[in-house]
Amino acid sequence: MRLVTAGIALLISQVVIIGFVERVIDGDTIRVDLGDRTETVRYIGVDTPETVHPASGVGPYGKAASEFNRSLVEGQWVRLVFDVEQRDRYGRLLAYVYTDSLFVNAELLRRGYAQLMTVPPNVLHVDEFVALQRLAREAGVGLWGLEGTIPPVPPPGIEYSPGTVEPGGEDDIIVYITRTGMKYHRTDCHHLKHSRIPIRLSEAQKRYEPCSVCKPPGVR
Ligand SMILES: [Zn+2]
Q: Is 186 exposed, middle or buried (0-12, 13-18, 19+ CB in 10 A)?
């Protein structure tokens, strides 16, 4: 059912425009000349953290992500492909960005320069992005290779709702996931220190693995 819905959304809303990247603002934001105007474009589905260690101020990683992004797109023509929402609340265009040879959003995740940031309803590529982030993390590339990597707190104003949690019903067991993790947890697990998103157990089991530390319900 979810696939069918995504397919319909794709048919209705997928718009592609071509632009020239004037400059890179940071790891996930660019300034693009569209001919009649210039727009700020935020990449969908990824987040390049300013800092890796919140206590140490501006860390080196945001800078590395900016430079990598610059090497991919600055001074190049790109295709911008939109999802359900064309703009965020700050008026920036939200896009999947492609060069001749690369899907830039995906490349940032694949090389460990960005973390997954899923903001419904713009979720066309979420499965691919989840898989790329998992591979990057397993390989320890980019930010996943740094000591003590801490997932950033969601920026203010971004609502994150991977599943609607409603009371009642037979499978009304609520477990918790994190913004970037691949596991689900019991309410008191220490992995929930940085983010904590309620989700039904039945939903969690479709997309996440049970945590081996807190052993939530559904451990096989
Ligand atoms: Zn846990």
A: middle
Rounded to 5 degrees, φ, ψ at 127 are: -65, -45
pLDDT digits (tens, 9 = 90+) for 40-94: 999 999 998 764 444 445 456 788 899 999 999 999 999 999 999 999 999 999 9
The residue extents of the domains of the chain are 8-158, 159-220
Cα 144 to middle of ligand 1, angstroms: 19
DSSP H helical ranges for the chain: 2-13, 60-73, 104-110, 126-139, 201-207
Residue 97 Cα to ligand 1 middle (Å): 35
Tell me how far the alpha carbon of residue 196 lies from the centroid of ligand 1, in angstroms. 11
pLDDT in the model for residue 95: 97
CA distances (Å), 7 to each of 16, 71, 199, in order? 16, 33, 24
Residue 60 Cα to ligand 1 middle (Å): 29
> Quick one: fold of 8-158?
OB fold (Dihydrolipoamide Acetyltransferase, E2P) (2.40.50)
- Report the pLDDT averaged over residues 105-130: 92
Token pair listed for 134: 């998992």
The CA dihedral of 178, 166, 175, 177, to the nearest 10 degrees, is: -10
What is the reported pLDDT for 60?
61
Instruction: Kindly report the pTM of this predicted structure.
Output: 0.60
Catalytic positions, written as ranges: 42, 50, 92
